[in-house]
Amino acid sequence: MVRCSQERGAYTIPVMSEYAAQFKLRLSYELKKQLEVSAREGARSLTAEILLRLERSFEPDMRVCMALRAELVAARALAHSAIDVMSRKNSAYVVNDAARDTDPSRIDSASADDRGDEDFEAKTLQWLQAQNDATTVLLAELAYADAVGKPMSLELVRCRITELDIHLPQD
Predict the structure, then answer these.
(1) Domain residues for 156?
(2) Are 87 and 153 in a shared domain?
(3) What is the DSSP string of 69-104?
(4) Do residues 138 and 75 lie in contact, with contact meaning Cβ atoms separated by under 8 Å?
């Protein structure tokens, strides 16, 4: 972090003489407006807001937090895909069960093992849905914290993962 000339809100304004590099930057109007709103809310100039956000992106804690967010997105996608596959499989069973019910020769074909498998699949589907819901909640919390300019610390993110009982995919 660079030396600072004065305190202003939650961020210290860097001494501009320390910055030799200047360049033009093209932004979408929407992104520029978001930066301006955030800068105004934090009592910072647009330049100070952009510098703050860039510097934060290089902080080790922030990089790990961003990687953790990517893992959460991957976990949610994996759970969602598994739910989709299991739901399709279960709907195929419903069609087969309907055919079995109309065929008198197959009435007793459902064994205890089949019912045990169905219970296991139901519990697995319930667990996957809970994982999907929990990761969605945490990702929404992260997005909200970012939107209000108070990103969650890595420690807090890890705490929430534990509280929500989220299981991330292992490498």
Answers:
(1) 60-163
(2) yes
(3) HHHHHHHHHHHHHHHHHHHHHHHHHHHHHHHHHH-G
(4) no
